[in-house]
Amino acid sequence: MRDGIIPAAAPTFQGEAGAPFFLVGQAPGPVEIEQGRPFAGRAGREIGRWMARAGFASDDEFRRLTYLAAVMRCFPGRLASGKGDRPPPGRAMRNCESWLEAELALLRPRVLILVGQLAIRRFLGPGSLEERIGRTYGSDPLVIPLPHPSGQSRWLNDPANRERLARALAALGEQRRLVAGVDPGALTAPGSRLDD
């Protein structure tokens, strides 16, 4: 990596026009790059468990109803120590910003799911996870912050934080119920939000 820009791009994102949910994570990891699919590794399995708690019938349903992206589209590499992934550098995130903005403008999701502090800070500004998780923001789109599902995070060890996550998943579940039975393809039909 030189000046925050990686030498080879392998952007990882997934979703279809009309998806009512838009999830923004931090950056793909090595498993995601290898499989070409966001949240394909351990963090993805945890996201899948959270989405089941929120009322999605399956991982397939969650992925069908959700466009998955990140503040940095490519794997930022491993830490020099070899223990964990390098945080996305600011310059690399700025390099990816126009893609994220274009997708949001084009897709106009009903719900924006922010996963992890980097995504939360990008959209809501500075603030602690304790202040953000368990609350919703705005309405067009409705913003629901979630903690990062990494096994390295100790944030969910605190029972109060697990309750915050439960409130966030309940809010997400309510939104899931509101779109139940809505075919994402139908959202691109004439007169839909995407055709406005």
Note poorly predicted spans.
187-196
CATH classification class: Alpha Beta
* Quaternary structure state of the chains depicted: single chain
How many alpha or pi helices?
A: 7
- Main beta sheet, described? 4 strands, parallel
* Global Rg: 16 Å
Question: Which word captures the global form?
Answer: globular
- Please provide the ordered H/E string of secondary-structure elements: EHHHEHEHHEH
Distance between the termini: 41 Å
Describe this structure in words.
Residues 187-196 have low confidence and may be disordered. This protein is 39% helix and 10% strand. It has one domain (21-181): Uracil-DNA Glycosylase, subunit E (3-Layer(aba) Sandwich), CATH 3.40.470.10. The protein is globular and about 45 Å long. α2 (42-54) crosses α7 (159-179). With 196 residues, it is an alpha/beta fold. The chain has seven helices and four strands; from the N terminus they run βαααβαβααβα. It has helices at 30-35, 42-54, 59-65, 90-107, 117-124, 129-132, 159-179, and strands spanning 21-25, 66-70, 111-115, 142-146. The chain has a four-stranded parallel β-sheet with strand order 2-1-3-4. The termini are far apart.
Chart the SSEs and their pairings.
Layout: E1 21-25, H1 30-35, H2 42-54, H3 59-65, E2 66-70, H4 90-107, E3 111-115, H5 117-124, H6 129-132, E4 142-146, H7 159-179
Parallel strand pairs: 1-2, 1-3, 3-4
Précis, in short:
The protein has about 200 residues and is α/β, with parallel strands linked by helices.
